[in-house]
Amino acid sequence: MDISSAQLRPSPLPKLFLVKGRVIQISWSLLLRPFWVLIILAVLGSLSFLLISRFIGQSVQVQGSSMYPTLTDSGHYWLNRFSYLIGEPRQNDIVALRDPRDDTLEVKRIIALPGQSVYIKNGRVYVNGKLLQEPYLPAKTPTYAYEKNANEFICIGKNAFFVMGDNRNNSTDSRTFGAVPRQNILGKVIE
After folding, report:
1. Is the peptide bond preceding residue 114 cis, with omega within 30 degrees of 0?
2. Which of 66, 83, 171, 174 does the annotation list as catalytic?
3. What CATH number did the domain enclosing 133 receive?
4. What is the rounded distance in angstroms from the CA atom of residue 9 to the CA atom of residue 48?
5. Given phi > 0 = left and psi -120 to 50 = alpha, else beta, which region is 167?
6. Exposed, middle or buried by CB within 10 Å (0-12, 13-18, 19+), for 24?
7. Rounded Cα–Cα distance for residues 21 and 72 (Å)
8. What's the mean pLDDT in 70-75?
9. Full domain range(s) for residue 129
10. Which pLDDT does position 156 carry in this prediction?
């Protein structure tokens, strides 16, 4: 291609309009600029939402009475995902987790950490041989293993947590589905 052929290409002529006695020059790039700004803002907004809901926090709704009286049925709470990106779950934390059986979202309290043991005997819970103090439960609330009045001893494995609902007589939890793997714990629920 030589220089002369490049010079012969016609350049796009701007559109000229007469508005209130003045000549206004409008180009397509000027007309499309607001639409590109809107598209960029929509993409950035969507990315921000996805990053925040995946790594920072989100809203969760408790379904059922398994956490009563601490959390109410149909109550809305914040899930802090960031806290477990920088730290590990602790005993007594209320967490949102994926049920290991069917991948549904559950809200439960962490009772025992990896490497600890849980002994449920005569309606009481012992962690590492010590009676678990549970001020969040109504006084004299009994806790039984999956089969009522049965005693149960459980050793929690590496990277697993033993969880229970605060409404012990109406909660499907680690007494039913076993210890929960760490990767199933999504974050800490803020009351």
Report:
1. no
2. 66
3. 2.10.109.10
4. 44
5. beta
6. exposed
7. 69
8. 89
9. 57-190
10. 95
- Residue 124: both structure tokens together: 């009481």
Catalytic position from the list 83, 108, 174, 188? 108
Residues 45 and 65 in one domain: no
Q: Known catalytic residue: 108?
A: yes
Give residue-wise pLDDT tens across range 8-44.
565 565 566 666 777 766 666 767 778 888 888 999 9
For residues 150 and 124, membership in a common domain is answered with yes
Let me know if 11 is a catalytic residue.
Answer: no
Judged by average pLDDT, the poorest of 47-51, 116-120, 178-182 is 47-51
Look at residue 82 and give its three-state secondary structure.
coil
3-state secondary structure (DSSP) of residue 80: strand
Contact 53, 187 (CB under 8 A): no
Show Cβ contacts of residue 30 under 8 Å, excluding neighbours closer than 6 positions: none
Q: Are residues 172 and 132 in the same domain?
A: yes
